Predict the 3D structure of the following.
Amino acid sequence: MSYDWFESIGRPQFVVAPMVDASELAWRLLCRRHGATLCYTPMFHSNIFTKDHKYRKENMVTCDEDRPLIVQFCGNNPEIMAAAAKMVEGQCDAIEINLGCPQSIAKRGRYGAFLQDEWELLQKIVKAMSEAVSIPITCKVRIFESIEKSVDYALMLQKAGCKMLTVHGRTREQKGPLTGVASWKHIKAVREAISIPMLANGNIQSVEDVYRCLEYTKVDGVMSAEGILTNPALFEGINSVTWEIVQEYLDLVQQYPCPTSYVRGHLFKMFHKIFTLEENNDDRQILATAQNLNDFRTVCSNIKDKYLPYHEGKIIYENDENILRKGYDLILPPWICQPYVRMTPEEHTQKLEKLNANEHVAEKRTLIDENGDPTISKKKMRRLRKSLRRPKNLEKNRNNDRHGEICVIKKCLNPLGRRCLFRLCKKCCKDKCFEEDLDCPGHRILVHTRREMAIKYSKNIDKNTEIVTN
């Protein structure tokens, strides 16, 4: 397959991944200024994109500096996907089909990684989109546990008309606390089998990881998601000073506005080491409730004022006993952008075992106020107020049919799920399953199943791959 179109966009090696609520124009431009040579839009839902003018106008935002650019769509209808592609044909260099999203919303919507077993449908989608537009159609996929099936999957997409393939070296089940290590061995096998341009995704936390991946897998380029969120200058090979890179990002947001939730998310990730320190709780709270650029700039200014003397060497910075006692491993000073490293699936399992043995108190989403009572979110507060307005005889329905019953957890007034095995609302059921390693088919919460699959897969990863990725 010809590399002509890939050559025409400069054979990009340093690629910023498509990320929902995190790949907006301001962020793409920031990454481009610090070494990125190709960016993607966030994933757009093809059905909504074709029907909702406001959705298109608010999300498909670009400019002359924002090239080369690939627009990513999800969906399962060939005609709708083709129509969506036609709408953006003149604003980008290629259009990608998202076949890698592993989240539950993708399962409910039947798109992303949950189409990876429907090869006949995928062939129709690739063909329909390729015939509808004059620019290349690309695909982003996750691997199967079997290397052979992963290779066959890639060859099928290439034959269907895919012009570039991005392979995320994790299975559909590897996500969240069970993410684990991506298999570069799978990526290498796919690279050796296909003849179209190919990008690798997974285990990229520094520019050294980029070059090791290029050398081992022989792919044409490397994509980063989590790594670049915590350090936008990753491809430049530097660890930025947080307030400098944040200020540059905020200036771009002022020029190319985006929702405050996007900005808040980016700042939390770039400041993530700063906010592990209790001394910065006030600034963390300001960021959590920030509503405009001035609020975000205030946080940035406060952090700079506090740590600039340390950065300039006027004051010597040393980890205090509180930091060491909590186990924070600060190889770099906390005001420097650095990777966020997830715990391994094995560590996650061990943590659960300790929780179940009552050796530690569960930390998941539990906040205690000065009276010792759990705090609740604004959303739950609204539900509580609504429940208090219900007729007082609602309690009588507990012993009738399940319609109208309330969660059995004390002080929880949410309605229970009709099919819940534990007679709980979804929130309480999710907490119970997480802490006790259970499944609840009624709520479609499969914590135990996914943990088992992730652990099984992590044990099957070849030792050579682990050596390469360490």
The beta strands are 14-16, 38-45, 69-74, 94-99, 137-142, 164-168, 198-201, 221-224, 439-440, 445-446. The chain has three domains: 4-236, 242-341, 345-457.
